[in-house]
């Protein structure tokens, strides 16, 4: 027996959802039709423990991205050039061929050449792009496919290049705000590790010659240094194993959700991540709708684009509500993850029929918020980190030379 989920309408036009058990798909369909139902949707449910599937999908995609890591500015230039050539009257096949000859990035050059070969075999551009998931995102492929269907591929490619430029600018500003403190913190931990492992133990012989009773904190520091020196390979191995374990866990649904919840609750940085996600959501939603992609299809793509498990689940919940006939703004509001400003703009857009335009306006608002937050972070974090590093170094030096203050006692003894 297999489990099926269904969406049906009764004779009175009432929409119903549920599950049933049946031997196969056809018998499940016959059972529903025998009750006088109009079947809207019937799918087989996977009752197995769905852990390995999502994990392997994310793992394979991560490996694919590492193997074919293409800078975003290279994609922006490619998309811009492709849009210009295609609008000038060249075919996609010729445009791709010329771009492959001029491409300087070796990895991306192979990708473009492969695109050209697949298009020569009769594949559409969107189908050829789909064969490189580590390079082109789901959004990129979906917009190209929408442009092919609507006959406005050149306009879609032009809009896509502008979108990628916006995303690149936002990512660069967010990363610039986070790279510096992350680098300083990693540097600080590395310096502490080297100091305690190789420098502090050398002071033990000096302390032994003093002969006086050492302060508690100095003894503690020396003991930590000797332990690290004796177990350096175990510490490094445990650190690497812990890093890989955490990385593997974040590839699972539960692990990704926990990680993103923690990231959103970080002081200052959590707000920055939230604003960046909202800017990406609004921009993508407006762009998809303006390209002629259906609302439900857009919501499905947004789940893969927001790159945050918390908002991915919120969009999935909103998508189900929209499918049940609830308005877009009401469905998003019910998730309690989207701020009132965005909800109000989308509500106005639904009433005026310009939801794509107002969604793009919301994206501009949140992009400005991201820029302002980055500017404030840049001004505040640098001096704070200088004080932090200076304080840690000062404490180490003080504890290291604290026994010198007892040197008189040692001479007396």
Order of helices and strands: EEHEHHHHHHHHHHHHHHHHHH
What is the helical fraction, as a range of percent?
A: over 70%
Total number of distinct structural domains: 3
Main sheet characteristics: 3 strands, antiparallel
Number of strands: 3
Quote the average pLDDT. Answer: 80
Based on secondary structure, the structural category is mainly alpha
Give the overall form.
globular
Whole-number radius of gyration?
29 Å
The fraction of residues in strands falls at 5-15%
* Discrete helix count: 19
Strand arrangement within the widest β-sheet reads 2-1-3
The termini sit apart by 88 Å
Poorly predicted regions are none
Describe what you observe in this structure.
This protein has helices at 25-34, 52-67, 72-87, 92-102, 106-120, 125-129, 138-150, 153-199, 203-210, 216-230, 232-250, 253-264, 269-290, 295-305, 309-323, 328-334, 340-352, 355-401, 407-412; strands spanning 2-9, 15-22, 38-44. The protein has 413 residues and is mostly helical. A hairpin with a 5-residue loop joins strand 1 (2-9) and strand 2 (15-22). Helix 16 packs antiparallel against helix 17.
Could you outline the blueprint of secondary structure elements for this entry?
Elements: E1 2-9, E2 15-22, H1 25-34, E3 38-44, H2 52-67, H3 72-87, H4 92-102, H5 106-120, H6 125-129, H7 138-150, H8 153-199, H9 203-210, H10 216-230, H11 232-250, H12 253-264, H13 269-290, H14 295-305, H15 309-323, H16 328-334, H17 340-352, H18 355-401, H19 407-412
Helix pairs in contact: 3-4, 3-8, 4-5, 7-8, 8-10, 8-13, 8-18, 11-12, 13-14, 13-18, 14-15, 15-16, 16-17, 17-18
């Amino acid at each position: 027996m297999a489990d099926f989920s269904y969406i049906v309408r009764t004779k009175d036009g009432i929409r119903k959802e549920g599950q049933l058990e049946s031997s196969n798909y056809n018998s499940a369909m016959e059972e529903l039709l025998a009750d006088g139902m109009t079947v809207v949707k019937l799918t087989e449910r996977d009752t197995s423990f769905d852990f390995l599937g999502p994990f392997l999908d994310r793992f394979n995609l991560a490996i694919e991205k590492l193997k074919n890591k293409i800078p975003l500015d290279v994609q922006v230039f490619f998309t811009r050039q492709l849009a210009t050539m295609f609008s000038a009257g060249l075919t996609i096949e010729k445009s791709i061929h010329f771009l492959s000859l001029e491409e300087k990035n070796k990895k991306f050059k192979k990708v473009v050449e492969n695109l050209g070969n697949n298009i020569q075999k009769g594949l559409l551009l969107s189908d050829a792009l789909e064969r490189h998931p580590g390079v082109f995102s789901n959004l990129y492929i979906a917009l190209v496919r929408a442009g092919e269907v609507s006959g406005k591929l050149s306009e879609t490619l032009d809009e896509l290049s502008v979108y990628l430029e916006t995303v690149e600018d936002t990512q660069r500003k967010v990363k610039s705000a986070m790279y510096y403190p992350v680098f300083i913190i990693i540097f600080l931990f590395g310096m502490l590790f080297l100091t305690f492992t190789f420098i502090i133990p050398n002071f033990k012989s000096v302390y032994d010659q003093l002969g006086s009773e050492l302060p508690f904190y100095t003894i503690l520091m020396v003991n930590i240094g000797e332990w690290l020196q004796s177990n350096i390979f175990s510490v490094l191995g445990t650190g690497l194993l812990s890093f890989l374990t955490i990385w593997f866990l974040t590839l699972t649904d539960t692990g990704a959700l926990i990680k993103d919840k923690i990231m959103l609750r970080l002081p200052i940085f959590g707000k920055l991540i939230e604003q960046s996600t909202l800017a990406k959501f609004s921009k993508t939603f407006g762009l998809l709708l303006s390209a002629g992609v259906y609302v439900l299809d857009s919501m499905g793509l947004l789940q893969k684009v927001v790159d945050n498990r918390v908002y991915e689940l919120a969009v999935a919940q909103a998508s189900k509500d929209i499918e049940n006939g609830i308005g877009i703004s009401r469905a998003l509001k019910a998730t309690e993850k989207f701020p009132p400003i965005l909800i109000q703009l989308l509500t106005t857009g639904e009433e005026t029929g310009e939801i794509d335009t107002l969604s793009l306006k919301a994206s501009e608002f949140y992009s400005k918020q991201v820029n302002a937050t980055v500017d404030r972070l840049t001004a505040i974090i640098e001096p704070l980190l200088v004080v932090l590093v200076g304080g840690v170094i000062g404490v180490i030096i003080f504890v290291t030379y604290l026994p010198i203050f007892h040197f008189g006692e040692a001479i007396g003894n």
